[in-house]
Amino acid sequence: MVDKQSCLSSGRCLRAEPRAFVEDEDHLAEATAAARELSRERLVEIARNCPSIAITVFDDDGNEVDLGRSPG
Ligand code: SF4
């Protein structure tokens, strides 16, 4: 659920939830299995704080959760 093409390596998601997000060898964020244990509200909060809109949250049915951002 992290689009590495868009990640700016800001580290915000890693600082917010160090178990749920780690950085790869290129310093790009990736979600771990622990991210599934976070509440949807917490994940949405982290996604909304991503400066590059690189984080997408999915519900239990695999549908993308609306982050409340305006289009464009
Ligand atoms: S908050 Fe967004 S830009 Fe920053 S490290 Fe995480 S995914 Fe990358």
Gross geometry: globular
- Based on CA atoms alone, the radius of gyration comes out at 11 Å
By CATH, the topology is Alpha-Beta Plaits
On the 0 to 100 scale, the average pLDDT is 95
Poorly predicted spans: none
Approximately how much beta-strand content do the residues carry? 5-15%
Number of strands: 2
Distance between the termini: 20 Å
The largest pleated sheet is described as: 2 strands, antiparallel
- CATH architecture type: 2-Layer Sandwich
Q: Give, in spatial order, the strands making up the sheet with the most strands.
A: 1-2
Q: Briefly, what CATH class?
A: Alpha Beta
Structure explained in plain terms:
With 72 residues, the protein is an alpha+beta fold. Strands 1-2 form a two-stranded antiparallel sheet. It contains 2 helices and 2 strands; from the N terminus they run H-E-E-H. The longest helix is centred in the middle third of the chain and has 10 residues. It has one domain: Alpha-Beta Plaits (2-Layer Sandwich). Helices cover 21% and strands 8% of the residues. Bound molecules: iron/sulfur cluster. The site of iron/sulfur cluster (SF4) has 14 residues, from helix 1.
Please give the structural blueprint.
Layout lengths: L11 H5 L4 E3 L5 E3 L8 H10 L23
Antiparallel strand pairs: 1-2
Bound molecules: iron/sulfur cluster.
